[in-house]
Design brief:
single chain, about 180 residues, alpha+beta, Aminopeptidase, seven-stranded mixed beta sheet, two-stranded antiparallel sheet
C-alpha cells in the first residue's frame, strides 16, 4: 500500500503533485498565481533535486492498483523551517479527490509518525494554509496543535500557513507500525 519513491518515479510524482495541488487550491487562487507556483515547485529540476535530497523522503500510497496520494517528509537540513535535529517535517501530504475519505490520509500520517519515531525524533510538525479547514481538523484529530505561523507565497500573493506540532513522547514502532501509548481521540 505504501511505496518509497525514487528518481525513477519523477514523472509520476510530478503528475500527482500537480493534480492534487490543483484539486486542493485551484479554486481559491488566481490561475496566474497557481501557474507560477506549479512551474516553480514542480518543474523537472526542482523535483529531481527534492527526490535526491538526502534528508527528504517521498512515499506513494496506492489503492485499487493506482497511486492515490503521496507524502513528503523532511529532517535536518531539508526542513523548510529551522526546527532542529529533533524534528521531522511533513512538508506534503495529499490524496487525490477520488480516493479521499478512504483512510489513506491516516495511512500516510502513520508512515510519517513511523519515520519520525524510527529516526529518534521528538517532534513532528507541518505547515497548513490557514484557510484549509478540513486539513486543520484532520491534524488536530491526530494530536497536532498550532504553535506559530509563517508566510507562504502563491505566485505573488502572500498567504499564511499555520505551523502545527505534535510531540512524539510515548509513541513507539513495532513491526513497522507506529503506535501511540496516549492516543488522541
Amino acid at each position: 500500500m505504501i511505496k518509497t519513491c525514487s528518481i525513477d518515479d519523477l514523472k509520476e510524482l510530478q503528475a500527482i503533485s500537480i493534480e492534487t495541488f490543483l484539486e486542493t487550491f485551484g479554486q481559491q487562487n488566481s490561475p496566474e498565481n497557481i501557474a507560477r507556483y506549479l512551474e516553480r515547485a514542480f518543474n523537472d529540476a526542482q523535483m529531481e533535486q527534492e527526490l535526491t535530497q538526502e534528508d527528504s523522503r517521498f512515499y506513494f500510497v496506492c489503492c485499487d492498483n493506482q497511486v492515490a496520494g503521496y507524502l513528503k517528509v523532511n529532517v535536518d537540513s531539508a526542513q523548510s523551517e529551522a526546527m532542529g535535529r529533533d524534528a521531522l517535517e511533513i512538508e506534503r501530504i495529499y490524496i487525490l479527490r477520488n480516493f479521499q475519505k478512504r483512510g489513506l490520509g491516516k495511512v500516510l500520517m502513520d508512515k510519517a509518525f513511523e519515520d519520525a519515531v524510527a529516526l529518534g525524533k521528538k517532534t513532528i510538525w507541518l505547515g497548513v494554509w490557514e484557510k484549509n479547514e478540513n486539513a486543520i481538523r484532520f491534524y488536530e484529530k491526530k494530536g497536532f496543535t498550532r504553535t506559530g505561523a509563517h508566510s507562504f507565497y502563491m505566485g505573488d500573493e502572500e498567504q499564511i500557513d499555520f505551523i502545527m506540532e505534535r510531540p512524539l513522547e510515548g509513541m513507539t514502532v513495532q513491526d513497522g507500525i507506529a503506535s501511540d501509548a496516549n492516543p488522541v481521540r
